[in-house]
Amino acid sequence: MGLSQGTALEQAGDDLPRNPRRPLAGRWNVFRSRLLASDRFRVIAARFPPTRPIARRQARKLFDLCAGFVYSQILYSCVRLRLFHQLADGPRNIRELAKSIDLEEDEVARLASAAASLKLIEVDADGQCGLGPLGAIMLGSPGITAMVEHHAMLYEDLTDPIALLRGEKQTTRLGDYWPYVADNFPAQLDEAAVKDYSALMAASQQFIAEEVLAAYPVQKHRCLLDIGGGEGAFILAAAMKAPDLKFVLFDLPPVVGLARDRLAGHRLLDRVTLVSGDFFNDPLPVGADLITLVRVIHDHDEERALALLREIRQILPQDGTLLLAEPMSGTKRAQPAGAAYFGFYLLAMGSGRPRSIEELTDLLDRAGFLVDRVLRTRTPMLVRGIVARPKRSTI
Question: What is d(CA 369, CA 309) in angstroms, rounded to the nearest whole number?
């Protein structure tokens, strides 16, 4: 570092308050914040070769935060227009795509250019469009595609995020979409009220199931009870993994009806017992040595989550196992997925919040469980798992 540049960097923090009683971390935070807020420092950092790459990365991150909503709308447009499906068999030119997706050629060119910048598609010098790496993944991931379309409701709920934070919104699109959240008697819901969200959960559950089943050997158990099992997507995946395992699926009556149809189509009704009810108001089925909660606990606030875990502790045999799997906050290198995405999604939904391993461990402890281990999943940003066992009774 040259003398003048070094002196300038040092002088950028000369006026910082010096308080020996402030913890070191606090002093560093104040120093760093003052430095980064300084126009003079940012100019120097952008010019100085060792700090230039850092300055550029930070600028790109900040720009992406500002532009993120636009990026998501470009992805949404590609999904709604089925652009990736249009390119599934190979590259096509702008004119062909315009006819297929009912847009003018210049409109397709604008969308193609934007999508190419996000690596969703690729465009060559002749205007031929093909799948990009992320577009190819989207094409092979119907669960992600379903979630992107579903996000239209979340975008609407987030038009005024401050009102959402203050609790000023009486209703939200997501709250209406997930009716069991606000309904005091969800077991009385009809099939029309649960059909859409059940289909979404089934579409997105396949990948989650693969992650969990790769991390935990369900085949060592004799009977698995899946609480809030939806249309049976997790059970379907587990049945392929463990051909001798018996299953019990517990969910709301109309959801169980949908599960029956799906499981019958896979000829699994002889291995699955279907039990309908509301797990906050009705008794849980007994007899399973493995109970699974897949993307269930984070939907509920503290009191209800704890009540459900305590009920599970009452019916689980002493040598039984609880497997809890869901996205969790504080996940290393995936903090925005938990705290930002799931935090605000559940806020809009009107119930629950993402929890860290430590918070879930505390919940389990208060419910009468000991955490046996934390599962290492391949994509912890989307799902992590905790294996817990009942504490020994002192009575």
Answer: 9
Give alpha helix (H) positions in the chain: 3-11, 24-37, 39-47, 52-80, 83-86, 94-101, 105-117, 133-139, 142-157, 161-165, 173-177, 191-215, 233-241, 253-265, 302-315, 335, 343-349, 357-367
Give tens-digit pLDDT for 336-345: 888 999 999 9
* Cα–Cα dist 118/141, whole Å: 17
What distance, in Å, lies between the first and last C-alpha atoms of the chain? 70
Which domains does the chain show, CATH number per domain? 56-141 (1.10.10.10), 144-390 (3.40.50.150)
Identify any residues that bridge with 3 across adjacent strands, giving them in sequence order.
none
DSSP letter at 218 equals G
- Digit-coded pLDDT (tens) for 8-63: 333 333 433 444 445 556 677 777 777 777 878 777 877 878 888 877 888 888 88
Q: Quick one: CA torsion of 187, 193, 196, 198, rounded to 10 degrees?
A: 0
Residue with tokens 């008697």: 185
239 within 8 A of 262, measured Cβ to Cβ:
no
- Torsion angle in degrees (nearest 10) through CA of 189, 295, 119, 127: -30
With CA atoms as reference, report the closest residue to 384 among 372, 376, 392, 393: 376
Its pTM stands at 0.84
Integer CA distances (angstroms), 387 to 239, 269, 297, in order: 20, 27, 14
Report residue 313 as tokens. 């502790």
Residue 325 burial by Cβ neighbours in a 10 Å radius (0-12, 13-18, 19+): buried
CA-CA-CA-CA dihedral for 273, 276, 278, 282, to nearest 10 = -80
Distances (CA, A) of 135 to 77, 88, 129: 12, 10, 12
Residue showing tokens 């005024």: 160
